[in-house]
Amino acid sequence: MIVVSRATNNPYQTLGVPVDASAEEIKSAYRQLALKYHPDRNRGDKDAEDKFKEISEAYATLRDPESRRAYDTYGQAGDYRRPDFSQVDWQTIFSEANIDIQWDPRQGAPRTGNAVFDVLFGAFTGLMRNSGLLPGEDRQLTFVLPLRKARPGDQHRVRVPGPSVCPTCLGSGMTSAGAPCPTCYGRRVLAGGSDVIFTLPESFHSGQKLRLRGLGGPGSPPGDAIITIQLILPTESKLVGNDLHSTLYLTPLEASQGLRTVHHSTSLAIPKGTKDGDIIHQSNGPMGGDHIVTVRLSVWRGIWRRATNLLQNLTESTEE
Ligand SMILES: [Zn+2]
After folding, report:
1. Is the pLDDT of residue 1 over 50?
2. From ligand 1's centre to the CA of 255, what distance in Å?
3. From ligand 1's centre to the CA of 219, what distance in Å?
4. Of 110, 130, 150, which residue is a domain's last?
5. Do 199 and 153 meet the contact criterion of CB atoms below 8 Å apart?
6. Which of 38, 96, 141, 221 is buried deepest, with most CB atoms within 10 A?
7. At residue 265, does pLDDT exceed 80?
């Protein structure tokens, strides 16, 4: 069992060295404590993990002459600000103390599977990403698209979760004229996410992924924004390839007189004397393939269709 002293903000106390200790003495004290509290030797021991993090931060504070001087000058005063440990070069610190860390050169990130290292390095890798030293992460999002708006070639707007590359300047921070970008004000990255315009391809299906290169998380190279299209079909319809199969309800009177109507974005001419179960085959369906319509006769569902069509037309004309 490890007895952990109460967390202290005094790095000398944490490492058990006098205030006039030499750099070599500080390193040696840290090395001994680090070996004792190394998370690999204390698996699952939360206190040891905290202690390891605490001594590592104390060492990082005293190792750097500038931050040690800052602590010596202001450390006991209330206005002392702890260093930003995400800026610390942990890789060098651990190798100086002969602490074995698996480093994945491809990812430029440690592979420890250990909570403490993940916390220490999580901030570190985030910093490296933001400074363009690591590849950016892809950003995944789903775009819900009702069939009546699924026109190939149309443009739509989506929200890419942040932090993401500024889509206006593509992460350069500048306009082409050399002025600061009006969207990110030169910051290159939008912390809260970005609005991105994309174009529906000529042919697509529900579940299809569209990749917008370089518009994901910041890094070098930046990640991509990946949009999954979730197509919402009207009730009683299905897609077979690009062919839409649907059901159209008519009143018996409409069927006997014939009519022109728009059904799921397709203009249809229903001939006089159409019977229940007749199938109308129309090319140029809403998804680019055919539209195969099965006509059913029903007084109430026919009336209901006319009412909802009317309502939808009214809503759309007020929307536009
Ligand atoms: Zn910008």
Report:
1. no
2. 58
3. 15
4. 130
5. yes
6. 38
7. yes
Count of C-beta atoms within a 10 Å radius of residue 305: 18
Q: Which residues of 237-274 are buried (b: 16+ CB within 10 A; e: fewer)?
A: bebeebbbbbebbbbeebbeeebeeebbbbebebeeeb
CA of 105 to the centre of ligand 1 (A): 31
* Contact status, residue 169 vs residue 195, Cβ threshold 8 Å: no
> How many Å lie between the centroid of ligand 1 and the Cα of residue 54?
38
Give me the domain span that covers residue 271: 237-319
**Is the full-model pTM beyond 0.85?**
no
Tell me the pLDDT tens digit for each residue of 119-142: 666 655 665 666 666 778 899 999
99 and 52 in one domain? yes
Q: How many residues does the chain have?
A: 320
Q: How far is the CA of 165 from the centre of ligand 1 (A)?
A: 8
Summarize pLDDT for 155-168 with one digit per residue, the tens: 999 999 988 999 99
CA 175 – ligand 1 centroid, Å: 8
68 and 155 in a single domain? The answer is: no
* CA–centroid distance, residue 124 to ligand 1 (Å): 24
CA of 202 relative to ligand 1 center, distance in Å: 29
Residue in the block written with tokens 């001419």: 269
